Amino acid sequence: MEKDVQSLLKVEPFLKTRHNKSMLNSLKFTLFTVYFLAYLLTPSFALASIPKKNHIEELFIWKVSDELNLTAQEEKKFTEIYKKLNAKKNEIQIQINNLNLYIKQTNDFSKKNLSAKVKEYKKLIHDLNTINIQEIDLVSELLGEKRFLEYLAIKQDINLKLKSLVLGDDPTKKTANSPVSASDPKPKALPPPQIIEEK
Q1: N or C: which end of the chain has fewer CB within 10 A?
Q2: pLDDT tens digits, residue range 146-163?
């Protein structure tokens, strides 16, 4: 009897098959999605003590850590990098939003003012791109190239899901901008061109 109980408690052989690993990963992703949706649908008064931005950051960090199997040290370093760069991005985004608001409300369309605002906007976009390059350098150095590419895929997937929630689109639906994977069937052949004769 004791032997039967021990064999029931062993989960490792179950997890060693490829099919069961994919089922487990699918379950993890489903649970993450359900938790994330539940968070988004929770009334704001219930989460008044937790700033939403920080909560979303924590969810993202947890998702990346879980998907990439980060060690405690890697997770700590990744959290520091991500929060530091995200804070810088948010500061720049606020400046861009303020600039856009100024442009909408201004009546000063002198050449000097317009030129100054274009330069200011260009500098902000340049700063934002610099931070994105820093993210590539720091995170790829921490995770290695393979896990960094997996990180980018996770980030893209979450962004698409958030975008689909906001826009009400189906994230599984292919669009013209959707990436093509090797498993996708070949695109349908286009019909031959039609010749139009002028009369």
Answers
A1: C
A2: 999 999 999 998 888 878
